[in-house]
């Protein structure tokens, strides 16, 4: 599976100011975010959850072959099953949830996007983690002082924040991401906690031109790339 910019961004951006002892990555995929957080933190328990069998097997391989294998563990289960079985609370819960907002079948896809066509893409679309399930589960698994962090489409930000407030979690940091200075904001990275404070608003631009990255982006992610 390919490494996506979304996951790397979230794993690099999320705050570790509360020095988490325990971390949970929901919908881990290849395990990239959990691996980044193992590299960035001293957390002693870093759990990952992945329902797709192929992704789960790849995640386990990546964990076992990493320098932090003793702190990493991946569960092969649905989020619903996991919540029912696990009694632990986590100091940081993080997720790059599978989301798709495909264009209508009759419409031509915008430049840079494509209509879902392959069986794998359709399967992932159908298995997309509903935001309400993710939010409810995170609220149950999060410790009192914990942080819940996600990356979602920018257009979903307002609705997502509203949904999260219904389980008494409130935005503490918001970072809106655009590809270039002239492009629209495509992603929102959000941090929530049970503390209701005025959120810190940040902005991030990835490139000045094709494959020419901004200093802000390079400073954020360079620890995770061999060449940056």
Overview of this protein structure:
The protein has 228 residues and is an alpha/beta fold. It has a single domain (5-101, 109-221), classed as Rossmann fold, CATH 3.40.50.150. Helix content is 32%, strand content 27%. It contains eight helices and ten strands. It has helices at residues 5-13, 32-40, 53-64, 79-85, 119-126, 131-141, 157-165, 215-221; strands at 22-26, 45-49, 72-75, 90-95, 142-153, 170-178, 185-193, 200-205, 207-209, 212-213. The strands form two sheets. It has an eight-stranded mixed sheet with strand order 3-2-1-4-5-7-6-8. A two-stranded antiparallel ribbon has the order 9-10. α2 (32-40) links the parallel β1 and β2 (45-49). It is globular, with a radius of gyration of 17 Å. Mean pLDDT is 88; it is low at 101-119 and 122-126.
Structural class: alpha/beta
Strand content bin: 25-35%
CATH topology: Rossmann fold
Q: How many separate structural domains?
A: 1
* Sequence stretches where pLDDT stays below 50 over 5 or more residues: 101-119, 122-126
Just give the CATH class.
Alpha Beta
Q: Which shape, going by the Cα principal axes?
A: globular
Q: What's the count of strands?
A: 10
Radius of gyration: 17 Å
CATH homologous superfamily heading: Vaccinia Virus protein VP39
Return the string of H and E elements. HEHEHEHEHHEHEEEEEH
Q: Estimate percent helicity.
A: 25-40%
Q: Biggest sheet: strands side by side, in what order?
A: 3-2-1-4-5-7-6-8
Described by strand count, sense and barrel closure, the largest sheet is: 8 strands, mixed
The termini sit apart by: 21 Å
